[in-house]
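Please decode residue identities from the backbone states below.
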């Protein structure tokens, strides 16, 4: 297998982890997050800094440490953030992501705008790293399947569709949403560690708003709340730039257009069930339609 294919396999696997982990928050509990890139960055910087301070630590320990660091950060902001819904939570997570990126750029120990470079790859070959990455991706998908089935999955669906009705049925929304948020951050942090020690260089720009929006597009395109939908969305949007290299300047425009077309013509995503408009996409689609009515009246 050529090095180029292995490179795509490694980076594609990291994006699959990120999209699948964001699906735990957006797809299962119906919470809109535009700050997932920040958890990705927390994991990357936590792993990089720890590896520089304690180079004897095994890579597996660093991956777990990075995930737990991102999970703790998610649990800290959960109480105020998860009381909000839809666009309000989106604005809060967007702000947190921007603040995190600015903080990275203005701290000396994170390397400032230049980032950290010369990170150890622990002597792992690309195939060995690819196996670890896809093993983490498989764990995330198994967790998604487990959380979306049984009584737990039924309670999550109730919370996602209508919190008021869920409370009337005796379901407490906050613990369920906090658990999804924390699990989502855990895998994003682990992806950050894998990314940092594969690239061996990290900078604040890799964890900003662009990354968060790209991950959300992957989840919406593939199918929110489905197990394999984010995998399909991640593969499609990760490989798309490989076929559009001559139009690299219009990459964000293509992503935005694809997201809008998906919401209008197939809001359930590629692998979502036909005839359903789950969670965030359904509400956003309804919002777009409502805002178009006055224009028609004029």
């Amino acid at each position: 297998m050529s090095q180029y294919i292995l490179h795509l396999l490694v980076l594609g696997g990291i994006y699959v982890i990120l999209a699948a982990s964001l699906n735990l928050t957006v797809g299962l509990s119906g919470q809109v997050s535009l700050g997932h890139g920040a958890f990705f960055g927390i994991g990357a910087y936590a792993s990089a800094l720890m590896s520089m301070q304690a180079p004897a630590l095994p890579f597996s320990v660093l991956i777990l440490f990075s995930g737990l660091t991102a999970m703790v950060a998610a649990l800290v902001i959960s109480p105020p953030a998860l009381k909000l819904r839809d666009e309000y939570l989106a604005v809060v997570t967007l702000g947190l992501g921007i603040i995190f990126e600015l903080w990275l750029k203005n701290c000396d120990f994170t390397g400032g705008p230049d980032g950290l470079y010369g990170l150890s790859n622990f002597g792992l070959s690309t195939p060995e790293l690819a196996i670890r990455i896809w093993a983490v991706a498989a764990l995330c998908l198994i967790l998604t399947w487990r959380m979306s089935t049984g009584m737990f999955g039924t309670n999550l669906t109730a919370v996602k569709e209508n919190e008021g009705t869920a409370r009337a049925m005796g379901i407490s929304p906050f613990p369920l949403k906090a658990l999804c948020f924390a699990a989502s951050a855990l895998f994003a942090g682990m992806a950050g560690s894998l990314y940092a020690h594969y690239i061996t260089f990290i900078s604040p720009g890799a964890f900003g708003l662009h990354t968060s929006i790209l991950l959300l597009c992957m989840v919406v395109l593939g199918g929110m709340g489905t197990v394999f939908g984010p995998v399909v969305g991640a593969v499609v949007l990760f490989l798309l730039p490989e076929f559009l290299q001559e139009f690299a300047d219009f990459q964000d425009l293509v992503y935005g257009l694809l997201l809008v077309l998906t919401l209008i013509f197939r809001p359930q995503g590629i692998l979502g069930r036909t005839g359903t408009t789950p969670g965030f996409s359904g509400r956003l689609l309804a919002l777009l339609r409502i805002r178009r009515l006055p224009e028609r009246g004029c």
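Observation: Strands lie at 116-117, 201-202.
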